[in-house]
Structure formats: structure tokens, C-alpha cells
Amino acid sequence: MELLNELWKRAKRDKKRIVLPEANDPRVLKATDILLHSKLVDVTLVGNPDKVNALARQHQCDISRAQIEDPQAAGKLASFAEFIYMKRKNKGLTLEAAKKIILEHPLFYGGMLLQKGEAHGMVGGSLHPTADTIRAALWTVGMAPDSKLLSSFTIMLLHKKEFGENGTLFYADCGVVPAPAAEELAQIAIDTAASFRRLMNQEPKIALLSFSTQGSAKHPSVDRVIEATRIVREKKPDLF
């Protein structure tokens, strides 16, 4: 739990505004209550204020200090829809369809708040599948300029502190790229190492895993890992 405690302290020292777009989920409202009373972040919820506040009262959540943005009434529909339309019109998206997306899908509205600099981060996925959550982020915030691959990682906090960095391991990719090629595996390793460095304030060391131990088995998937390792050694030798 050392990592969580450290992230908690860092967040309080550098307070940010976080969008929680799925405000019709009681769990999100409870999280809002905890976050605001802990003075950890400022929170923006997306939804109709009357409905959100009624749901909060029903579940005994104090969200009185949260900002609630109603896509129907906030006056941002035109600019948000225009942004998505310009980004996706070559894919066949119309302006009217973009407006409908902004009004009906809170993840896209939340993502546009980030895109316009009105928030620092967004947490979603409690009511929407991973694919929808990723799509909203890609259509609004987009990829980093030097990134060509979207991947995920899971933070594993172990009781045995001799593993990883004091028991903390970053495990990737277990959620987005189902069968990565060697070049993609290498990029996932490099990107995850960068995420580790940002979150842990420590220099990462990586390992690329397969079911073969020191050449005990021959298989195309093993060959991909071997080739990915070679690529990472060439690009980022300091990671081993």
C-alpha cells in the first residue's frame, strides 16, 4: 500500500480537477464524496444536476462541492461537436452525429473537457466497456505526439517486497492489445517503463516474459518475445 499512500500525498500536494463522467452510478457519487472530503482533487460530474443530486441524496452521498455539468445546458455543445466532427469527418462522421455523441455519451463530453483544458484527468469505465472508454479518449484527447500504439498496464502490489520495486510491479499489456507483434511488444515495454518512471519516481527495469525458459521451447510466440527483447535492447538498453 506504500505506492497508494505516496500517490495520495502527491495528489494532495498538487491538486487537480478530475472528471467523473458516469454520474448516474452510485459508486461514482460515493467516490466523489470521499475525494472531496479528503480534499484530494476537485471533481466535475457530467449529467443533469437535478438527477445527479437526487441520486446522491438517495445513496447518502455529499457531493455539494462537486461541479456538475449538464451537456444539454452548459453551452459547449457546438464547439465540442465541431472538434469531434473535424477530427472524424474523413471517417464519415457528420456534425449532427457528433452533436448526438456529445449529448448522449458522457465519456465523450468528459474527454472534451480535458481537450479544452477544463480538467486535468478523467476516470471512466464503471458503466461502460473498455472499448467505449478508449474510443472516447482517442476521439477527444487523442494519442501523445510520439505515441503510435495504445496499450494498458496493471499495477500489482505484492506482499513480498523483494519483488519489483518494494513489492510493486507494472504488468502489461493485459487489456488492450490481444496479440501484439514483436515491434508492438517492444513499444508496450518502453511505454510501460515510462509510466513506471512517472508514477514511481524510480528508474524501471523490465522483463519480457514467455512460457519458454532459457530456450526450453520453440514457438512463434516465443520468437516474438525474443525479437521484442532485441528491439528494446537496441532502443533503450538502460531498461535491462
Topology (elements, then pairings):
Blueprint: H1 2-13, E1 17-20, H2 26-37, E2 42-46, H3 49-58, E3 67-69, H4 77-88, H5 95-104, H6 106-115, E4 121-122, H7 130-140, E5 153-157, E6 168-172, H8 182-200, H9 220-235
Parallel strand pairs: 1-2, 1-4, 2-3
Antiparallel strand pairs: 5-6
Describe this structure as you would to a colleague.
With 240 residues, the protein is of the alpha/beta class. 47% of the residues lie in helices and 10% in strands. A four-stranded parallel sheet has the order 3-2-1-4, with helices on both faces. Helix 2 (26-37) links the parallel strand 1 (17-20) and strand 2. The radius of gyration is 21 Å and the shape is globular. The chain starts with a helix and ends in a 5-residue tail after the last helix. The model has no long low-confidence stretch (mean pLDDT 94).
Topology as a string of helices (H) and strands (E): HEHEHEHHHEHEEHH
Oligomer: single chain
> Roughly what is the average pLDDT, rounded to an integer?
94
| Global geometry | globular
User: For the CA atoms, what is the radius of gyration?
Assistant: 21 Å
Unreliable parts = none
Total DSSP E strands? 6
How many helices?
9
Helix content: 40-55%
> How much strand content do the residues show?
5-15%
Strand order in the largest sheet: 3-2-1-4
Query: Major sheet, described briefly?
Result: 4 strands, parallel
Structural class: alpha/beta
Cα separation of the termini: 26 Å
Key words describing this protein structure:
four-stranded parallel beta sheet, two-stranded antiparallel ribbon, about 45% helix, about 10% strand
